[in-house]
Design a protein that fits this description.
heterotrimer, A alpha+beta (about 100), B alpha/beta (about 425), C alpha+beta (about 1000), A: about 100 residues, alpha+beta, Folate-binding fold, 4-stranded antiparallel sheet, 2 helices, globular, B: about 425 residues, FAD/NAD(P)-binding domain, 2 domains, 8-stranded mixed sheet, about 30% helix
Chain lengths: ~100, ~425, ~1000
């Protein structure tokens, strides 16, 4: 596969390491009253769709960026690649 | 119809006109006591044991394509019970015992061949881990044997004892492990179930569950609604898709695992060999092909096909450990969808929906589990109690913190 | 007589003669021959035996679709089993042997199977060999295995090398026939980068095999002219002998180039083959078509082949299997072969055409509406039995029979991404469907365009459309319409072969249907149709057609099995490339590696690193002697250990402390500058991930160490936490593992030794630089260095880091300066002994399933702050009172061995899994304790110190009485490290 890195252009997927569902960006609030349940769902339950899937790839053999790649799990077509940091910021994940 | 050598001879002498269909092709009834979704190895085994062990005869297996078309028809055919953890080992040992009596039970020769499996070890830490595992196996009543390098060399003199990057320092052997003719497992269970009245309904995709007041009362299918008192789901790589119709998210991701076969060769490999410092395992089929595989591609996929980096990774492992296979040709590569669970171990459990039961999360180890999976799922469906060897294989182990993590990789499915 | 079946003309080079041997006989051929064409020219038709019935077989085809003529090519370690004689290029000295026969090809004992075939029908083995159960492995299976298989491996290491390469292009053209050449010309003339790949050693495809003219010249000449032009175009890469094996995701194609297979041995420094990954923006498949046979009784004798192959042998290779030939056809293609062979002076005994309206000929008899219903000849075809339209039957003597059931577009690669071909009624064949791999289009016969002009035009148009350029001018060529009337099998036939290699007959397909194996996949798996080395290229369609007819369905309703890569089989060595032997994985060496080698160190693989395991001295006979000495000397005076392999990560930024506070379960916010702290990192699931130290060199600067094994994964995790979870923290990470050489200097004289190398302005006294201090210093007169006062051994110890390029010099200096203290280098074994003596966890304890609580560090998990893993670490299963706890273990009798991996049972209690109390993680001989000691996870272990237990290790045949102890075997108060 080829991942079109937003900064570096198209790169072979073998330069990357795969983590999984980009919902892993959504780390729950550890202080919320339902934190235990929320962390269980965050840590263990997956949508696992057959179709478009937003997922995290790490450019280990490159610039060490984490990317959010939108890829179809049936066709493997990649429709979007974003910097995970930008996505995380857009989600309001700031310190 | 009973199969036997005598019968083969008799039919040969009268033009094979007497053979009937191995299983019927029935129209679905309106209602069953139990519906099993998924006509793969696990679903068919479940139906067989429901009928045989629990006397359940109003059972249907509903399959969207042709039976045996999923992972039971596209794996590397290995059976073993060389597991470490208490949550797993008794289950897989039951499976191995069921394999050992399978052909007589089913009256079908699935070519269960206990040719032995050796997991090679390449470091002291790996030896420590294999000693622990071998002991766990033996304490659970399974067989295990720790080999030093010389003993491995005696059995497999052509492994790379010469210039290996990661020298072979020994291996953990399970002599009762081996291989089985995979397609025949599906067909044998189908025949066994069918002969006890189970309806096997092919080309009938489930399109939804009918759930009323928190209770599952049947399934919607391409051929209409089929009612049931209980519904069991055994669809492996498609678990996410099917259970989504019941509104459930699972601790499972679907990944592609590739496997490979070489052209036919005269006998080379007596048993199964697993490389301990790379991604490669191999056996030789009765037809002569080297059947081999390695790691999953590593990304979520429902495509049943993989990509070159993994092919190369596996072949590199093969050449690293068996440099004499260099001129053997890879004939065919294929991919299956693995239901990779969050701790690498399976789930056989009830669901929050009453009357709906789940069997999945087999990762890439589902084939060897087929008999015990069917046996234990049948037990659960029939009695509403987990089978004693499957008590740990529950959904709530993740929330409660009782993971069964053989590899110690945590909640990242592609590392298991 | 030499080459009795050699004809005139052809594309062989008669000026050179090549000598080769097959089955021990010496023959002559010419450059341009394949092994099969040369054997046919030498009047040899028998080339192999079938898989199951060991039937005598000759070539069916003239290309890579060949099922029958497969041989063991070359000898010794280069032996290649299952090599197609039809594609093996002839070279001088070629040696080939028949396979799957004994004692000889002509007289094969296993041919008895053919006599027993009525008992050995499809799937018979599923129905028998079940009793008694033990006989399967002991008796039946070994017999089956021995009889099965095809060729033999040499069992020697492959002596040749394989390379890998990467290519990029605007357009990949697969297949260099009429369509492919025209496509490459179109793209190349427009200056676009194009790769033209063909599995054959000569470009031209069917143009080489036909007598048609293109652009007013012979087709082969036109092809040669096109190739000559392409060779001059700078943006064109011609790749003959290159098979595109698969169309993978995102335009990546795998291709195998056979660089040296046409030579006796590869030229010096050249690989045997190259596996290319071709990154193609667009690809155009011009893979042509494959002729299909007709099934009739005994249609598999040597001499019976595809009519198009007969033509190829005659026109291209100037060879014929016999001087008297018949043709059996259901379309005009058979007549074309007859005409070409006639023109070459071959006697055409008959053209048997199933069509009542077949065309006439002046040159040979045409039997209209007739069928070949049987054949005769044991090792060679002697005659065929013909049933005329009026039902009369008679024999026609002939040495060869060309069969044509029409052509199938070669759709293989169009289906590699799970697309399915669609049925074309006019052609009665599958053609490429709509769901092709993205970027792929199809031209020529592969698309069902069978006329030569059509192929040329569609190649030009295909390239033009793919690249958005103008099509090149297409030369004149034959453009007659082609229609195909299907004729799959002769009514009433039974032992009529479909899959010739696997011996699948019409009868087997009927039985498969009868027994309910009706889906195309069941048919394949039950009968093994299409599973041989040719993957059913000529046979699948016939099986489908017959199944469709029996089942009362149409062929498209029955469907096809899945086409999988590779297109043709590929040597496993080619996929591995150079990653073999010592080059399987990269080898990482520390800066002092060569110094250690000089000292005679024994090395051990730790991940990709090589580390010194111990340093034997002359006279030391057993590794334990060396290790015990290293431990004793270190604890008595001073030792140095290379710990460069630990992961080192530089953490800088205003939020560096806050970041580490999130990362480690214990607190880091308040760590003072100039101090080091031990840190335990959890995964988000609450399980221990890794441990190490973090040293605060400045307010905004930390240096983090990881274990050797987890360096990569921890770095990845840290970047995840930084970029994905806390994207606005002001913190930067960089891995500096390779940048610094690091040495542990441990033992009572460690300070004295260091004082000799550390520059004098740095005060190393216990007051100025206490336990867990760190600082940036200089050594040896100004060399930048870092010093950490941390101890894995439990002794007064430091870790000294210098830039990697000074690592070797630093180690030598430490040895020189330490001579007065009898300094020893120590390896990973002594390191392991000393850490076990101190109860420090390492990889065996941090095994990915253990918690801080189990490791005895439960109280380290801060309850005052959030860090990765704290929430899920509170789950009940990870906090059981009766859960595992890390303890020490020692044998009651000091002479007894204990072993890592042993399980612990209650003394006097039952020994089984249900009563398992825990397991030993690490064990070593402690010279100080005078016995073996170990670390173990034991249920409620911390409350059971002093308890006697039984250690059992049935797999190593060991049972030992042991006692649980504190894991801190040596200096439990920690006085030494603070001294």
């Amino acid at each position: 596969m080829i991942i079109d890195h937003p900064l570096l252009g198209p790169r072979d997927s073998s330069e990357f390491v795969y983590l999984g569902d980009a919902r892993m960006l959504d780390r729950p609030d550890p202080d919320a009253p339902d934190a235990a349940r929320a962390f269980y769902e965050y840590g263990y339950l997956r949508d696992n769709p057959a179709g478009p899937h937003r997922e995290l790839w790490f450019h280990e053999g490159g610039d060490r960026s984490w990317l959010v790649v939108t890829r179809d799990t049936v066709t493997h077509e990649i429709t979007r690649v974003e910097m995970a940091r930008d996505v995380a910021r857009a989600k309001g994940r700031s310190t | 119809m009973r199969y036997s050598g005598f019968r083969v001879i008799r039919e040969a002498l009268r033009g094979h006109t007497g053979w009937g269909a191995a299983w019927r092709d029935p129209e679905p009834k309106d209602h069953y006591d139990i519906i099993v979704i998924g006509g793969g190895g696990h679903g068919l085994a479940t139906a067989h044991y429901l009928a045989k062990v629990h006397g359940q005869h109003r059972v249907a297996v509903i399959e969207k394509g042709w039976i045996g078309g999923g992972n039971v028809g596209r794996n590397t055919t290995i059976i073993r019970s060389n597991y470490l953890l208490d949550g797993n080992e008794p289950f897989y040992e039951l499976s191995l015992k069921l394999w050992e009596g399978l052909e007589q039970d089913l009256n079908y020769n699935a070519m269960v061949s206990q040719r032995g499996i050796i997991n090679l070890l390449h470091s002291d830490a790996q030896r420590d881990a294999y000693i622990r595992r071998g002991n766990a196996m033996m304490l659970n009543g399974a067989d295990a044997e720790l080999l030093d390098a010389a003993a491995v060399r005696k059995e497999y003199p052509y492994l790379n004892f010469n210039d290996a990057r990661f020298p072979i320092k020994g291996g953990l052997a399970q002599r009762r492990g081996g291989t089985v003719r995979h397609d025949a497992v599906a067909w044998g269970y189908a025949r066994g179930a069918d002969s006890r009245g189970v309806d096997i309904i092919q080309n009938c995709a489930v399109t939804g569950f009918r759930i009323e007041e928190g209770r599952c009362i049947g399934v919607e299918t391409e051929r209409g609604f089929i009612g049931a008192k209980k519904v069991g789901c055994a669809v492996a790589g498609n678990s996410g898709r099917v259970m989504d119709m019941a509104g459930m998210r699972l601790p499972i991701e679907s990944h592609v695992l590739q496997a490979f076969v070489s052209e036919g060769l005269k006998p080379v490999l007596p048993g199964v060999v697993t490389f301990g410092a790379g991604h490669f395992y191999v056996s030789q089929s009765d037809k002569g092909g080297l059947v081999f595989g390695g790691d999953i591609d590593g990304y979520n996929s429902y495509a049943q096909r993989g990509n070159l980096p993994t092919v190369e990774d596996v072949c590199e492992g093969g050449m690293a450990i068996m440099p004499m296979i260099g001129r053997a040709r890879l004939l065919r590569m294929w991919g299956g969808i693995m239901d990779m669970s969050m701790d690498g171990s399976p789930i056989i459990d009830r669901t929050p929906v009453e009357g709906l039961y789940f069997n999945g999360g087999w990762c890439y180890g589902g084939f060897k589990a087929t008999p015990a999976s069917g046996y234990c799922f049948a037990h659960l469906l029939a009695t509403d109690q987990p089978h004693p060897v499957a008590t740990a294989l529950r959904f709530d182990r993740f929330e409660r913190g009782y993971m069964i993590d053989e590899k110690g990789m945590g909640n990242q499915p592609n590392l298991h | 007589m030499s080459q009795p079946n050699r004809l005139s003309g052809g594309l062989i080079d008669r000026s050179a003669e090549l000598s080769f041997s097959f089955a021990g006989e010496i023959y002559k051929g010419h450059p341009g021959d394949t092994l099969a064409s040369a054997l046919l020219a030498n009047d040899v038709r028998l080339m192999g035996r079938s898989f199951k019935y060991h039937r005598p077989r000759g070539p069916l085809a003239a290309g890579s679709e060949e099922p029958n003529a497969i041989v063991e090519l070359r000898s010794g370690a280069r032996r290649e089993p299952n090599t197609r004689a039809t594609t093996a290029e002839l070279y001088d000295g070629l040696v080939a042997e028949p396979q799957n026969c004994w004692p000889s090809l002509r007289l094969d004992a296993m041919a008895i199977n053919d006599k027993l075939s009525n008992f050995l029908t499809a799937g018979f083995y599923y129905k028998t060999f079940m009793w008694p159960a033990a006989f399967w492995e002991k008796l039946y299976e070994p017999i089956i295995r021995k009889a099965a298989g095809l060729g033999s491996l040499s069992m020697e290491e492959d002596p040749d090398t394989y390379d890998k390469g990467f290519l990029h292009c605007d357009l990949l053209v697969t297949g260099g026939g009429a369509a492919g050449l025209m496509a490459a010309l179109t793209a190349g003339r427009a200056g676009r980068s194009v790769i033209l790949a063909d599995e054959d050693f000569t470009f031209g495809g069917r143009l080489l095999a036909e007598r048609e003219s293109v652009g007013g010249m012979a087709g082969a000449d036109w092809a040669a002219q096109a190739v000559a032009e392409l060779a001059t175009l700078p943006s064109v890469r011609l790749m003959p002998r290159t098979t595109v094996i698969g169309a993978f995701d995102h335009g990546i194609h795998g291709a195998l180039e056979r660089v040296s297979d046409h030579l006796a041995v590869p030229a010096e420094g050249k690989p045997r083959q190259i596996l290319w990954r071709i990154y193609a923006e667009q690809s155009l498949l011009c893979a042509g078509a494959i002729e299909r046979p007709i099934a009739f009784e005994n249609n598999d004798r040597p001499g019976i082949m595809l009519a198009g192959a007969l033509r190829t042998y005659a026109n291209r290779y100037a060879a014929t299997p016999a001087r008297r030939v018949a043709i059996f056809t259901c379309n005009d293609n058979g007549h074309r072969s007859a005409a070409d062979l006639h023109a070459q002076g071959i006697e055409i005994a008959a053209v048997i055409d199933t069509r009542a309206d077949a065309p006439d000929s002046d040159n040979y008899p045409v039997h209209k509406g007739a069928q070949v219903i049987d054949s005769r000849g044991r090792l060679d075809l002697k005659s065929v039995r013909v049933r005329e339209a009026d039902g009369t039957e008679h024999m026609i003597p002939c040495g060869a029979l060309g069969v044509s059931g029409g052509w199938n577009p070669n759709v293989h690669l169009t289906c590699h991404q799970r697309g399915r071909p669609v049925w074309d009624d006019a052609l009665s064949a599958f053609v490429p469907g709509k769901d092709l791999p993205p970027g792929m289009t199809v031209a020529g016969a592969a698309r069902g365009i069978f006329s030569t002009h059509g192929a040329l035009a569609s190649g030009a148009d295909g390239a033009a459309e793919a690249l958005g350029i103008a099509a090149a001018d297409v030369p004149t060529a034959d453009d007659a319409p082609v229609s195909q009337t299907p004729f799959w099998y002769v009514e009433g036939c039974s032992r009529a072969w479909l899959d010739q290699q696997n011996d699948v007959t019409v009868k087997d397909v009927k039985l498969s249907h009868q027994e309910g194996f009706r889906s195309v996949e069941h048919l394949k798996r039950y009968t093994t149709l299409g599973m041989a080395t040719d993957q059913g290229k000529t046979s699948n369609i016939g099986g489908l057609a017959i199944m469709a007819e029996i089942a009362g369905k149409s062929i498209p309703e029955v469907g096809t099995t899945i086409f999988r890569p590779p297109y043709t089989p590929v040597a496993i060595g080619a996929f591995a490339g150079r990653m073999r032997g010592k080059e399987f994985h990269p080898t990482r060496l520390t800066p002092s590696h060569y110094w250690a080698e000089e000292r005679g160190a024994v090395f051990v693989e730790v991940g990709n690193w090589l580390r010194a395991q111990w340093f034997p001295l002359p006279g030391e006979k057993h590794w334990r002697e060396s290790v015990d000495r290293e431990v004793r000397a270190t604890r008595a005076s001073v030792g140095v250990c290379d710990c460069t392999t630990l992961g080192k990560i530089d953490v800088q930024g205003v939020d560096a402390a806050a970041f580490l506070n999130k990362l480690y379960c214990n607190g880091f916010a308040k760590l003072a500058v100039g101090k080091v702290r031990y840190g335990l990192m959890l995964r988000e699931d609450g399980i221990a991930m890794d441990d190490g130290t973090a040293a605060r060199l400045a307010e905004d600067h930390f240096v983090v160490t990881t274990t050797t094994a987890n360096a990569g994964r921890v770095y990845q995790h840290m970047e995840f936490v930084r970029q994905c979870l806390f994207p606005d923290m002001d913190v930067q990470l960089v891995s500096t593992t390779e940048a610094w050489a690091q040495y542990a200097v441990a033992g009572p004289n460690a300070r004295k030794l260091l004082q000799k190398v550390v520059d004098p302005e740095f005060d190393l006294s216990n007051e100025a630089f206490p336990f867990m201090a760190c600082g940036e210093i200089t050594v040896c007169g100004g060399l930048r260095a870092r010093l950490f006062r941390i101890s894995f051994s439990g002794e007064l110890a430091y870790e000294l880091a210098v830039p990697a390029r000074y690592g070797d010099a630093m180690m030598r200096r430490l040895m020189d300066e330490g001579a007065e203290f009898d300094v020893v280098p120590y390896g990973t074994e002594a390191l392991g002994v000393m850490r076990i003596e101190k109860g420090h966890a390492a990889g065996n304890e941090l095994n990915g399933t253990t918690t801080a609580l189990e490791l005895g560090m439960g109280r380290m998990v801060s309850t005052k702050k959030d860090s990765i893993g704290t929430v899920l670490s509170k789950r009940e299963g990870l906090n059981e009172e009766a859960g595992l706890r890390l303890v020490g273990v020692k044998p009651l009798n000091p002479a007894d061995r204990i072993t890592a991996g042993g399980h612990l049972m209650n003394a006097g209690g039952p020994v089984d899994a249900a009563h398992d109390q825990g397991y030993v993680t690490s064990a070593a001989y402690s010279p100080d304790m005078g016995s073996m000691i170990g670390l173990a996870f034991v249920k409620s272990g911390d409350a059971r110190l002093g308890e006697k237990m039984r250690l059992v290790s049935p797999v190593t045949d060991l049972t030992v009485d042991v006692e649980l102890a504190s894991a801190h075997f040596i200096d439990p108060e920690g006085g030494r490290q603070r001294a």
